[in-house]
Design brief:
The chain is of the alpha/beta class. It has helices spanning 17-28, 40-51, 67-81, 105-133, 153-173, 201-211, 220-231, and strands at residues 8-11, 32-37, 57-61, 86-89, 136-141, 178-185, 188-189, 218-219, 242-245. Helix 6 links the parallel strand 7 (188-189) and strand 8. The structure holds nicotinamide-adenine-dinucleotide.
């Protein structure tokens, strides 16, 4: 408890999946959280139920690909909580089979804008406040698709871009004691992948046993625990690092 006491965090893509798990865990650990998502009603529904009268989490509708939306998010966070110590760039989109051949330029730009340019815009817009914090952290949710191929060119390129965006900003922001790290989940059960997984639990089980040394799909909370560590002062000497959370999938 209280591993994020007195910290203010922005978490994007928080309407469900990993973003929801991260926002919930951060609030349970004492942070004040600005939770954002393009799906505002879905976000508001769990936050209202979770808070029961407290106001540790503030919600805002947010398209992470929009610079003007980022300005509103940062302004609202400062207005409501007065500071920003943590930025989690989590929002993203994925569809299977988005190969080079099958992808239009418009679709390529959309994936890159939501999955990668968003993290650049977030860091750039929050930077003055993160500098002021004196001890702040950015956590970028990339993917094992940013390390190994096979998940479609635009998605892989966006997630690999996130890896080096992280390392470059880690160097650029180090003089301000802003740490920047990335997380690389493997398969995790969230609304993003649920519709594309086999519905038969025995088939899913067999598939995961074949692909993953730990033999199962990950849970959103297992990614949130990694984000909590990297965002907290326990990771005070960790920057520019990539934390792979994939049950060993990329260890082979
Ligand atoms: N689930 C997995 O197996 C897996 C594996 C590796 C990486 N990831 C990455 O983890 C992150 C979280 O994914 P998830 O699995 O929780 O998926 P999810 O679909 O449950 O959550 C993603 C959230 O991002 C939001 N979003 C989409 N476009 C947006 C936009 N333009 N502006 C603001 N919000 C937007 C969605 O509304 C959604 O709530 C993503 O970046 C994803 O690429 C997921």
């Amino acid at each position: 408890m209280n591993r994020l006491q007195n910290k203010v965090a922005i978490v994007t893509g928080a309407a469900g999946g990993m973003g929801e798990s991260i926002a919930r865990l951060f609030a349970q650990e004492g942070a004040q959280v600005l939770a954002s998502d393009i799906q505002f009603d879905k976000l508001l529904a769990w936050v209202q139920e979770f808070q029961k009268g407290s106001d540790a989490i503030e919600c805002i509708q947010h398209d992470v690909a929009s610079e003007s939306d980022w300005q509103k998010v940062v302004e609202k966070t400062l207005q409501k909580f007065g500071r920003i110590d943590i930025l989690v760039n989590n929002a993203g989109i994925y569809q299977p089979m988005e190969t080079t051949e099958a992808t239009s330029l418009e679709r390529w730009n959309k994936i890159l804008n939501i999955n990668l340019t968003s993290a650049f815009l977030g860091a750039k817009t929050a930077l003055p406040a993160l500098k002021k914090s004196g001890k702040s952290a950015i956590v970028n949710i990339s993917s094992i698709a940013g390390i190994v191929g096979g998940n479609g060119a635009p998605y892989s390129a966006s997630k690999a871009g996130m890896l080096l965006l992280t390392k470059d900003q880690a160097i650029e922001f180090a003089p301000f004691n802003i740490r920047v790290n990335s997380i690389h989940p493997g398969g995790v059960m969230t609304p993003m992948v649920e519709p594309i997984l086999p519905t038969d639990p025995a088939i899913l089980d067999g598939m995961m046993k074949a692909m993953c040394p730990l033999g199962r799909i990950g849970e959103a909370i297992e990614i949130a625990q990694g984000a909590l560590f990297l965002a907290s002062d326990e990771a005070s000497y960790i920057t520019g690092a990539e934390l792979v959370i994939d049950g060993g999938m990329t260890a082979r």
